[in-house]
């Protein structure tokens, strides 16, 4: 932390209400030049709302914001940008039809400039990409990028503007541990030069590694603060939740019959994302199969096949012993396959639909909610209310548009509608992304409960700790190739890391020859 203690930011008495919901209640905090303050809290605690007020996307109902001693106009993103405030959003704010370079430079170039310096902008993006270890092609169309690559573009977009205060809202949610370490190493250099950071993350080891201080929000209010040198992860979790966080115990699995079988399945490449290359995988009742890998190595292709949104171009898919040639999303749902999609905004929800509509999005034709072509809205609302209560979805009610929810609460609704359907196969793709530690433990306990009742679970996660903790069998995917299955505890993180980097596949080919 910079010892000169020049105040970069001060928020005083910030209050923001959405109807009957008070998202922020008289919140005050400060940030010094060259300091990192971590903002912690459970999902729906008001963290993202507070940062959106600072960045000018929301106008506070009351309270003030000062940047380097000067008042910041309320609800004015341009004024925030001009004051040197940048934000890496938890949810992407990118235009799919534009290139990486066009997204990064959009709004950053003077309107009166007759000709844009495209080559200069391109070179600067390449330099930042190399410096921050955020490799992505400036010419790539954003719509073709993986989730991990889109997150890199968001980070580059902020860094391109020479920000003095940087808000990082779950910046490493889709980065590998190695990529996160590289990002932190470079951020430390920028911090030493005076960059100030507000860091929002549910990964407490990251908070301990990067932050100087921690401020905790609970139900929209500041409930505490502490220097990281004076605390530990367990204490921080207790401050967030008001109680000790205990992960669920993982008992040995008792696997049963194969419910879904992929045999030598191939799919085409999608832009820079590889397709599947002769992938064979058996999902058994009462077993969790974990899939580890660096983002963009074929996880999306495998999830699409299992979820019915893509058909194999070669190989076979067998469900309960029957070959399925007519594989579609409708058939997958009707066959008892439920999915937690990777991107809750693009493929998991419809933003302007309310919670009730989103709760039955993939099951509205089921007898529970439909009869003779008519929807039973009372049953649908009861179902949505049951999810809200059981999964602690923080919201005003089931008629709330889902776009008004925090990312974590949106994820909880998706989890609830998936798990409450009692499916025989669960595709859990990044199931705890953006969730607080208490919610993470709850989701893990629910996946283990689904396993115990006989469901087959495919857990796709870029969090290696999560994969190693929950999975009965672990596969690694790299460039569309699938490794052999490894029992829990058979390989160390370092050994799995070699497979993730492709080394294990090369060694396997050498031994085979």
Verbal overview:
The protein is an alpha/beta fold. The protein folds into 3 domains: 7-241, 3-Layer(aba) Sandwich (Rossmann fold); 246-336 and 423-513, 3-Layer(aba) Sandwich (Rossmann fold); 354-420, no CATH class. It has 18 helices and 23 strands. Strands 13, 16, 19, 20, 21, 22 and 23 form a 7-stranded mixed sheet that branches. Strands 6-7-8-3-9-10 form a 6-stranded mixed sheet, with helices on both faces. Strand 9 (213-218) and strand 10 form a beta hairpin. The model has no long low-confidence stretch (mean pLDDT 88).
Describe this protein with a few key phrases.
seven-stranded mixed sheet, single chain, six-stranded mixed sheet, alpha/beta, 23 strands, Rossmann fold, 513 residues, 3 domains
Number of helices: 18
Stretches where pLDDT is under 50 for at least 5 consecutive residues are: none
Strand content: 15-25%
CATH overall fold name of the largest domain: Rossmann fold
- Named at the architecture level, the CATH assignment of the largest domain is 3-Layer(aba) Sandwich
What's the multimeric state? Answer: single chain
- Total beta strand runs: 23
| Overall 3D shape | globular
Query: What structural category do the secondary elements indicate?
Result: alpha/beta
- Superfamily at the CATH H level of the largest domain? P-loop containing nucleotide triphosphate hydrolases
The main sheet comes to: 7 strands, mixed
| pLDDT averaged over residues | 88
Which radius of gyration do the C-alpha atoms yield?
23 Å
Please bin the fraction of helical residues. Answer: 25-40%
Count of separate structural domains: 3
Q: For the terminal residues, how far apart are their CA atoms?
A: 55 Å
What is the CATH top level name of the largest domain? Alpha Beta
């Amino acid at each position: 932390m910079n010892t000169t203690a020049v105040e970069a930011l001060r928020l005083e008495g910030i209050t923001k209400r959405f109807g009957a919901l008070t998202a922020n209640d008289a919140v005050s905090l400060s940030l010094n030049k060259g300091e990192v303050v971590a903002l912690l809290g459970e999902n729906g605690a008001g963290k993202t709302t507070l940062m959106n007020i600072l960045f000018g996307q929301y106008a506070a109902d009351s309270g003030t914001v000062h940047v380097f001693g000067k008042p910041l106009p309320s609800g004015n993103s341009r004024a925030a940008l001009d004051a040197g405030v940048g934000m890496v959003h938890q949810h992407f704010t990118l235009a799919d039809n534009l290139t990486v370079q066009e997204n990064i430079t959009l709004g950053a170039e003077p309107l009166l400039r007759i000709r844009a310096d495209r080559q200069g902008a391109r070179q600067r993006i390449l330099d930042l990409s190399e410096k921050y270890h955020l490799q992505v092609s400036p010419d790539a169309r954003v719509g073709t990028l993986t989730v991990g690559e889109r997150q890199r573009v968001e980070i580059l977009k902020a860094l391109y503007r020479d920000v003095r205060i940087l808000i990082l809202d779950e910046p490493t949610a889709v980065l590998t541990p190695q990529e996160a370490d590289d990002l932190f190493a470079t951020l430390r250099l920028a911090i030493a030069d005076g960059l100030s950071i507000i860091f929002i993350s549910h990964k407490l080891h990251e908070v301990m590694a990067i932050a100087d201080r921690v401020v905790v929000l609970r139900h929209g209010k500041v409930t505490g603060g502490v220097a990281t040198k004076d605390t530990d992860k367990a204490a921080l979790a207790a401050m967030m939740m008001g109680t000790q966080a205990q992960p669920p115990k993982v008992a040995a699995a008792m696997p049963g019959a194969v419910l879904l079988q992929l045999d030598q399945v191939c799919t085409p490449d999608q832009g820079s994302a590889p397709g599947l290359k002769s992938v064979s995988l058996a999902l058994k009742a009462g077993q969790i199969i974990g899939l580890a890998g660096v983002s963009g190595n074929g996880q999306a292709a495998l999830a699409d096949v299992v979820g019915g949104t893509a058909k194999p171009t070669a190989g076979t898919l067998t469900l309960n012993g029957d070959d399925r040639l007519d594989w579609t999303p409708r058939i997958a749902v009707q066959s008892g396959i439920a999915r937690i999609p990777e991107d809750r905004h693009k493929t998991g929800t419809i933003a302007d639909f309310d919670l009730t509509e989103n709760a039955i999005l993939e099951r509205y034709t089921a007898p529970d909610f439909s009869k003779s072509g008519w929807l039973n809205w009372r049953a649908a609302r009861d179902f949505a209310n049951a999810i809200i209560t059981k999964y602690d979805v923080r919201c005003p009610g089931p008629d709330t548009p889902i776009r008004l929810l925090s990312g974590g609460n949106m994820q909880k609704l998706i989890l609830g509608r998936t798990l409450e359907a009692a499916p025989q196969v669960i595709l859990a793709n990044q199931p705890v992304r953006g969730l607080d530690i208490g919610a993470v433990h709850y989701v893990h306990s629910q996946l283990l409960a689904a396993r115990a009742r006989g469901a087959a679970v495919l857990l796709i996660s870029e969090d290696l700790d999560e994969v190693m903790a929950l999975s009965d069998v672990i596969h690694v995917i790299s460039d569309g190739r699938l490794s052999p299955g490894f029992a829990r505890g058979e390989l160390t993180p370092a050994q799995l890391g070699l497979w993730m980097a492709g080394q294990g596949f090369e060694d396997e080919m050498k031994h085979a020859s």
